[in-house]
Amino acid sequence: MSGVWRPALFLCTLLLAVSRGPTWARTRTNDSSLNLLKTENPTHPVHGNGSESGEEPITTLPIVSWLWEEVKPPYLVALWILVCWLCKLVIEANHHVTEFIPESALLICSGFILGGMIWGADKVQTFRLTPYDFFHYFLPPIILDTGYSMPNKLFFTNLGGILIHAIIGTCWNAASLGLSLWGCQIGGAMGDLNVGLLQYLLFGSLIAAVDPVAVLAVFEQVHVNEVLFIMVFGESLLNDGVTVVLFNVFNAFVTLGGPRINAAEIIKGIISFFVVAFGGSLVGFVFGLLFALLSRCTKNIQIIEPGFLFILGYLAYLTAEMLSLSAILSIVFFGVCCQKYINANMDENSVRTMKCAVKVFANGAETMIFVFLGISAIDKSIWVWNTGFVLLTLLFILIYRFMGVFFLTWFMNLTRLVPIDYTDQVIMSYGGLRGAVAYGLAVMLDEAKIEEKKLMVSTTLIVVYFTVILQGVTMKPLVKWLKVKRAASAEKTLIEKVQNRAFEHILVAIEDISGQKGNNYLRNKWFKFEENWMSRILLRPSVRERQDKVFNVFHQLNLKDAMSYVVEGERRGSLEFIRNESAFVDFKKKFGEDMTMSMPDIMADMSDDRSAASSTRKESVPSVSLEVHEQAMRGTRAAEGLDSHHLLQQHLYKGRKQHRHRYSRSHFDINKDENEIQEIFQRTMKSRLESFKSGKMGVAPPKTITKHTRKEQQQKLQNKKSKSRLSGDEDFEFSEGDSASGYDTSFPVRGGYRPGAGIENPAFMPDVDLPLQIPPWLEDVDSVAPSQRAQVRLPWTPSNLRRLSPLRISTRSSDSFNLAEAPGDHQDDQLPPPPTPPPHRDGDVV
Amino acid sequence: METALIKYLCRFIKNKNTKTDNLILFRYSFTEWPDVKESSIEATFLQKSSRHRLMLSSLTQSAVLCVSVSSSHLLRLYERFESLDRENRGHLRKEDFQAVRELSMNPVGDRIIGSFFSPGQETVDFPSFVQVLAHFRHTENDRIRDGAQKEPANSTARRLKFVFQLYDQDRDGKISRAELLQVLREMLGMQVTEEQLQSIAERAIQEANQEANQDKDDAISFDEFRKSMEKVNIDHKMSIRFLE
């Protein structure tokens, strides 16, 4: 408990110190209604005061003068930002608290404290969140961040469900709440209120929307599964647009007044709803494309290119606002649509800058919003209490949210391949947090038209506090209690730990294999379109080539190399055996000599490495550690265990789920992931090549080899070739492969690899081993170069060594394949100069 | 009967490639699921003569499949199978799996691929494909299984076995130190040194041995493995929703 109090105390003293600034300033300037956040018209008082001070006659040159009035508005803004961020700092300093109470709730509470201090000093609330500032300064960066960092694939996969919830769900919430409250008023549950049906509907519409800021703040800390996450999150994002539209429509209706609303007006309202929503999205889309185009040619102004994201995003927002379209949707789609292209087009550093900066703005704005939500509450003048109204609103919001979610999910589950189960539905319903958007809209209500504005504002605030604080706090236990699929907790044994992580990888792999996403026709179409048109126009040519080809090229190269290697090797090997049975031994010797001659460093390396590795593996470490373990005290043992656990914790590869599909406002760590993926990718490719080779080598039965004459061999090759041509060139016949190859897939450790078990042909043994000694990620030009030399000397050495590293994808990639396809002398002229093994040199050996 | 059916289905799928134009889609479903029951399997040909249909339905009247996947998912998996099988051979080979881009970025990707192939097999046909995937089907808690029935693929024991075999690549019933090291190396980044890996493997084996109060050999047997995984909710971790 002391852990809770300490930061709170600290907070108080800190805030006392800081808040003295503005109050003191205010008393000095006698500006009783200073509104900090109204920076849009700050000039007048400043100017006036400035001229006032100018009237005083200057008797002497002032060395320094007091220019508070000049700097007041920006100064206060900056000060408040600092205060809010310091609040966050204090809250985040203690993880024990944030584990149980979400940060957003704590920020609101610190807002209460701050507001209380101001109230205590002034007896009036001087600072509050105005809708104008909220919608023009705080909301855009947050929404921009969500759009820009949106896990696109996930979002669009679930777009149908999200849209249904965002549109129908929100309308349902608004309508049902409005009607029920109206019914209750007629029933007399709320005493004497002068609120009509339309006003109730207006109120319903403003409070219907789930708030992205609040939802994210809570869900980020509760690690639910990604589908659930995107459903709640996507809904909250899109229904903001919906609710603003609804609000405007009903606002207009209220202004029109009851009697003048006829069917035509209602139809107009519905049309305007769609126009506003889709128009807004379209504006965002257009701006996104513009930005993508622009990013093609910002190479020369790299230093400011990250800024375009913010400027264009903001312009998209304001443009939509100007056209009275949905600004929120606009900026969401701006981010969603441009992210892929700009990330590819821009420099890596710029991308990183954007990613960081967008988080800074969003997180900062979010913090401000929550703090000010708290501060706004401490104001006597806004509070009007009506128990019936408040409690009924809370009740209905909760009930209708549950009803809506359950009904819509039931409806969606009819067509969904992967039904959303009940626990997820409960969380979705319970995650219906209301936030600052509702409050901003409530404050925007016109008191002239709606007499009970104050009641509505205070009810909205109550709802916001209730949902953010109460539901936010209880969300985590609920998720735990319902056993919603989520991230793993503590593991005990090492193998458990490894296995837990392995499970993640396994699941991901299985999902990939079974094509979890399915082969959606529409999606395929879209991908094609995207590939053919969008990418062509929006991506820089160099980027485009780089992007989609790397994998395929690398994959195919590997296979081709392996293929040519095998073909080459088989022919060589078999011929050698045919001619001279006794060459069996010679062969090995010769090969070994050649190897050591041509690449002594590698051979040395290899033998060193191998002996060292095997000795450590087989003898030293086991015996030593066994001894240690058997003799050691419990204490050291525990420490060591801790150490191993820590190591595992640190270095286990993360499952894809954990980093790819997660949106977080406060973290991003994309680079490490990409490195990891690169690493894994390279290793996998290597090991495939190795296993292919070793399988091929180890398996080829010597009997058959000796039987074949050269002619037959060639015929066979040609047959094989034609077969594989028929079946498409990326694939090969592996008819001679054997099961053993399947389980020798290990690259780095050759524990499972049993030398001599299947390898009859000694010629290829060292070669099979050779690349194993060079981990691909350690590889550089130096270690590849000798092998090139070697190739010249050893005609039977496969040409693959020069391509060990994926960066070295060369234009010669198809050489070896050509050779493999048509071994014949006439191929000679097509050969590029040095490294490929020319088949016509057969004769030398034979 | 079961194998006969599977074989027939295989053949059927293979044949499809030769007569692509009139056999467009092949669909069979189990009337009763999730449990393995005497299930009648119905085949739907969109453009196919009734002769085949008759043949198939008579063949499958009393067939038992130990694949517990529901029909719609089966269909979907078949579509996936087809899309993996880019050359319409009717079976998949390693390269087909390896062409899945994401798998090459998965540290255990190649192991998983390996697990689809039973020893001595170079290819995997659709039934085996589904059977492997069936390990990952979501389980219901309230299911009652009578003893006579075959154990479904997604029972805890079979799942454990599956996972165990991912480690035990040489299938000798033990995870040797080398095998464990290999896994560790795949799972850990390259940031860890060889010695650290060694000691981790060492400790893991020891822990497993202790847990089971068993012999102190240098390997983890299946029993030991099971014991050390007791606290892990395998059913929970090894189910994929879409395979329900």
UniProtKB/TrEMBL annotation, chain A:
Feature: compositional bias, Polar residues: 805-817
Reaction(s) catalysed (UniProt annotation): Na(+)(in) + H(+)(out) = Na(+)(out) + H(+)(in)
Residue numbers spanned by region Disordered: 691-748, 805-846
Keywords carried by this UniProt record: Antiport, Cell membrane, Endosome, Ion transport, Membrane, Phosphoprotein, Signal, Sodium, Sodium transport, Transmembrane, Transmembrane helix, Transport
Subcellular location as annotated: Apical cell membrane; Early endosome membrane; Recycling endosome membrane
GO cellular component: brush border membrane; early endosome membrane; recycling endosome membrane
Membrane topology, as annotated: Multi-pass membrane protein
GO molecular function: potassium:proton antiporter activity; sodium:proton antiporter activity
Residue span(s) of domain Cation/H+ exchanger transmembrane: 97-481
Record-given protein name: Sodium/hydrogen exchanger
Gene source species: Nothobranchius furzeri (Turquoise killifish)
From TrEMBL, chain B:
Domain EF-hand: 155-190, 200-235
Protein name, per record: Calcineurin like EF-hand protein 2
GO cellular component: cytoplasm; nucleus; plasma membrane
Signal peptide: none
Gene that encodes the chain: chp2
GO biological process: protein transport
Pfam families in the record: EF-hand_7 (PF13499)
Subcellular compartments: Cell membrane; Cytoplasm; Nucleus
Classification of source organism: Eukaryota, Metazoa, Chordata, Craniata, Vertebrata
Cited SUPFAM superfamilies: EF-hand (SSF47473)
